[in-house]
Amino acid sequence: FVTTSAGDAGMFADRLHDAGITVFHVVGTLADAKKAVDAGVDGLVVEGVEGGGFKNRFGASSMVLLPLIADHVDVPIVAAGGICDARSMAAAMVLGAEGVQMGTRLLACADSPVHANFKQAVLDADDNGTVLLPLGGRRMMRVIRTEAAQRLDAEGTPGVEALARVQ
What we know:
2 domains; three-stranded antiparallel sheet
């Protein structure tokens, strides 16, 4: 099983299928979902802007994307982005997902090799605990709201180089 993202879903799909591997592609728009299905992927990971990491600045929430994409494709869907507990998982299933993917939420589990300070920052984050930082063009990155992240957000479009400076 391989998950691909951030590019042409068809670039590796045939080679992976030839090796007997199931391929799901991460999408954040209906257009990307249709393209990925046309490229022959076996399923989709539908991720809204609530998810951590790289995002499309014009993206929609998971609760908008899931039913929209489910109505237009005939492949299994895994929901991602903002799924953090049983209720959000149940909502995703009702809206068309066959499963869910959790990332940030699992950073805080006991088995995660992430530093304890980062785990605590995830646990301490409230509904305003993240910020979308512009990376230029349509690219954004959702990060935990820290003093450094707030400073970059206030500066406007920091770009990837500015993010690397605060690491």
